[in-house]
């Protein structure tokens, strides 16, 4: 099966009983049992729900795993994965992980005696040096936000194997359409499905996939114990979103390449970050481990004032947090998603006041470029 076909035909499709082509929304909490202690495969919807199960089956297949899990948000998925650990364990994480993951590690997990170190995982040596005797998990995000740094999945797997670490990959930016970390030996792949997988700015959700049966059992145990499950309506929205994931990602990537080239040639733009550009440090590595470059572009407009001018002038780029939708979004990381990082540290990382992040949508690229041109000139 080729990639776009896989998005349409994976998992459980339709309804056996009626022939309905779309999976029904099973808006139900409990299930009639034929006898006490016997059930039809479903007993209570926290434990399992047919609509959620259909989604979980698709997710397992499109990530080349065996088990999938749907959670109430990306953070609910990440928190549940962290519950695989126990007090005293240590985690090594990518230094520019999603802000919510940073907050979880530094303000919540620390209270449970789960310690952490943040390192630049695009440099395997730093990762190796950060591993301690009590390190149990290597948690990476690739590419990262907002500078699109790329981490080598194969090298991470070697380090994880050497030290017996659970390798977890946040694959939100790349999507299962372009990148499948389980193929590179990752133990767990997860997504904020709020972004590209949902794709229409209308649902908050998190998804997880694994290959190993025991790990699948362990995560199901935690999902059922902690209870941060996705409801049937939202599960159905994601089932619908996944069918067009391939089409959307192809359209988004085509637009992104043109926009990245336009920005690179523009005299007002100081620097462009997009893995699809040959001068991006992660370009070759992305070609080795991903089938595409995605739709996130960051660029340095030179100053905060210039960035504001661009925001005032664009019409089709909506100023908003989040990413991965059909509509193009624009944001200023220094004042939005990364405002909690001290300015010195931000500048050190390259997150300048003039840095603008684009999440490219599926509009006509001529309109998007005209929009940016208007803002820049
Ligand atoms: C948004 C996001 C999350 C968190 O997901 P929510 O659905 O907002 O809880 C985690 N990781 C990445 C890379 C994200 O972009």
TrEMBL record:
<dbReference type="InterPro" id="IPR000277">
    <property type="entry name" value="Cys/Met-Metab_PyrdxlP-dep_enz"/>
</dbReference>
<keyword id="KW-0663">Pyridoxal phosphate</keyword>
<dbReference type="GO" id="GO:0004123">
    <property type="term" value="F:cystathionine gamma-lyase activity"/>
</dbReference>
<dbReference type="GO" id="GO:0019346">
    <property type="term" value="P:transsulfuration"/>
</dbReference>
<keyword id="KW-0456">Lyase</keyword>
<dbReference type="GO" id="GO:0005737">
    <property type="term" value="C:cytoplasm"/>
</dbReference>
<protein>
    <submittedName>
        <fullName>Cystathionine gamma-lyase/homocysteine desulfhydrase</fullName>
        <ecNumber>4.4.1.1</ecNumber>
        <ecNumber>4.4.1.2</ecNumber>
    </submittedName>
</protein>
<dbReference type="GO" id="GO:0030170">
    <property type="term" value="F:pyridoxal phosphate binding"/>
</dbReference>
<dbReference type="GO" id="GO:0003962">
    <property type="term" value="F:cystathionine gamma-synthase activity"/>
</dbReference>
<comment type="similarity">
    <text>Belongs to the trans-sulfuration enzymes family.</text>
</comment>
<dbReference type="InterPro" id="IPR054542">
    <property type="entry name" value="Cys_met_metab_PP"/>
</dbReference>
<dbReference type="GO" id="GO:0019343">
    <property type="term" value="P:cysteine biosynthetic process via cystathionine"/>
</dbReference>
<dbReference type="InterPro" id="IPR015424">
    <property type="entry name" value="PyrdxlP-dep_Trfase"/>
</dbReference>
<dbReference type="InterPro" id="IPR015422">
    <property type="entry name" value="PyrdxlP-dep_Trfase_small"/>
</dbReference>
<dbReference type="Pfam" id="PF01053">
    <property type="entry name" value="Cys_Met_Meta_PP"/>
</dbReference>
<dbReference type="GO" id="GO:0047982">
    <property type="term" value="F:homocysteine desulfhydrase activity"/>
</dbReference>
<feature type="modified residue" description="N6-(pyridoxal phosphate)lysine">
    <location>
        <position position="195"/>
    </location>
</feature>
<dbReference type="InterPro" id="IPR015421">
    <property type="entry name" value="PyrdxlP-dep_Trfase_major"/>
</dbReference>
């Amino acid at each position: 099966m080729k990639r776009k076909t896989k998005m349409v035909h994976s998992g459980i499709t339709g309804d056996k009983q009626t022939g309905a082509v779309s999976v029904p929304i099973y808006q139900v909490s409990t299930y009639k049992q034929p006898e006490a202690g016997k059930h039809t495969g479903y007993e209570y919807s926290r434990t399992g729900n047919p609509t959620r199960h259909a989604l979980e089956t698709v997710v397992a297949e499109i990530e080349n795993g065996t088990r999938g899990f749907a959670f109430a948000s990306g953070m609910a998925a990440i928190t549940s994965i962290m519950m695989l650990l126990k007090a005293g364990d240590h985690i090594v994480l990518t230094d520019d992980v999603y802000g919510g993951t940073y907050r979880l590690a530094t303000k919540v997990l620390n209270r449970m005696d789960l310690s952490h170190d943040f390192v630049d995982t695009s440099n395997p040596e730093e990762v190796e040096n950060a591993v301690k005797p009590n390190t149990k998990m290597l948690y990476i995000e690739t590419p990262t936000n907002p500078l699109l740094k790329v981490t080598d999945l194969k090298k991470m797997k070697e380090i994880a194997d050497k030290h017996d670490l659970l390798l977890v990959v946040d694959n939100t930016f790349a999507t299962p359409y372009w990148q499948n970390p389980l193929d590179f030996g990752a133990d767990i792949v997860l997504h904020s499905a709020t972004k590209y997988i949902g794709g229409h700015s209308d649902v908050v959700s998190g998804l997880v996939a694994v290959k190993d049966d025991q790990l699948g059992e362990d995560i199901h145990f935690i999902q059922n114990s902690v209870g941060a499950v996705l409801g049937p309506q939202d599960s159905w929205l994601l089932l619908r979103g996944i069918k067009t994931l391939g089409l959307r990602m192809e359209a988004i990537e085509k637009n992104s390449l043109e926009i990245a080239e336009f920005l690179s040639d523009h005299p007002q733009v100081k620097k462009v970050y997009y893995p699809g550009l040959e001068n991006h440090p992660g370009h070759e590595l992305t070609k080795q481990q991903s089938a595409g470059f995605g739709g996130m572009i960051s660029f340095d407009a030179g100053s905060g004032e210039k960035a504001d001018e661009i925001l005032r002038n664009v019409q089709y780029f909506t100023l908003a947090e989040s990413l991965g939708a059909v509509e193009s979004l624009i944001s200023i990381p220094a004042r939005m998603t990364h405002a909690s990082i001290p300015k010195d540290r931000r500048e050190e990382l390259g997150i300048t006041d003039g840095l603008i992040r684009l999440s490219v949508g599926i509009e006509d690229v001529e309109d998007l470029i005209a929009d940016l041109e208007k803002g820049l000139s």
